[in-house]
């Protein structure tokens, strides 16, 4: 999933590994922004600014779908090498077991961080936050918080393999014909247009009926469709060379779409009575432009930069990214909550949060996790780590 254990050393695409790690880092930096957005949240700092809304909206519009593209690519590579049994063993050791452990350990800690942060931000007192922690109401298990990510990965993997076998069972050669047709998704011009239409089909109801939350059915279908795109990309990985020839053009499409996406999505959040299907359609299409443009652009850029010569830092972050994903949220919320008691400007609080949490996360990985039993579990079985 997030580790670099999903592909053999001789065939592994280092660019995909690096991009997957980069998207996890983007999610971490995006989570650090959330206390300062003007959008209603579980915990908000007294200092907010609409500029944080736009940055957070931009990052989250493309980061999660693009991560699922890289995850779908990795699962397809694993399936091609080891079949369904190999995928099952890998998902069991690298996702299911860590998910169980993380749920029991991190869910109450994340709840504690949110309760602490909310108490401090509303009272302006660190003492009030500590009293909430000592009360112990946070010691319970229900909401999975950011761990929904792992649940979705397990579900998407099962669905993708099920669809592949279903296509094979319906008619001989059907799965191959579907794979051949999917090549159109990665044509230089027609591909992005087709993907924008596909993404709009799920994003329009996501913003017409809901507020774009990732756990709603339309958004889950949206993310699953990008997981399938990643699977097809592995089949047509030769098309990455075409993406690498024009990444700036694709990113420009995303940036042009961003202002309309920001306007329509914020209207959906703040004035839901005015957010009808017309506004939802605008939000869906413009958001699709952002996600497809950034996906093609970053896939192309990372392929051009890292496919033949991986970066040592990128490899290290690829190994650390699973731990980064698991542990970053409760730390970010706790530190952000503590800083909410100060009168510092929002941008200063954000930078301080990042400056405190990022080194802490990396230090815990390097000194406590990397060579531990937990580190080996996050990387999968030793045999897979060497393959």
Could you please describe the fold and organization of this structure?
- The protein has 387 residues and is an all-alpha fold.
- The chain has a domain at 14-196 and 312-386.
- Helix content is 76%, strand content 0%.
- The protein has 14 helices and no strands.
- It has helices at residues 14-33, 50-123, 126-135, 148-170, 174-181, 190-208, 217-235, 240-244, 247-270, 277-306, 312-339, 346-369, 373-379, 382-386.
- The two termini are 15 Å apart.
- The model is unreliable at 1-10 and 381-387 (pLDDT under 50).
**Spatial extent as radius of gyration:** 21 Å
- Decide which structural class fits the backbone: mainly alpha
Distance between the termini: 15 Å
User: Portion of residues in helices?
Assistant: over 70%
Beta-strand residue percentage: under 5%
Listing every helix as H and every strand as E from the N terminus to the C terminus, the arrangement reads: HHHHHHHHHHHHHH
Chain-averaged pLDDT: 89
Question: Which properties best describe this structure?
Answer:
14 helices; 387 residues; disordered C terminus; mainly alpha; 0% strand; disordered N terminus
SSE blueprint and pairings:
Elements (H helix, E strand, L loop, with lengths): L13 H20 L16 H74 L2 H10 L12 H23 L3 H8 L8 H19 L8 H19 L4 H5 L2 H24 L6 H30 L5 H28 L6 H24 L3 H7 L2 H5 L1
Helix pairs in contact: 1-2, 1-10, 1-11, 2-3, 2-4, 2-7, 2-10, 2-11, 6-7, 6-10, 9-10, 11-12
Q: Could you provide a short overview of the structure?
A:
Helix content is 76%, strand content 0%. It has 387 residues and is an all-alpha fold.
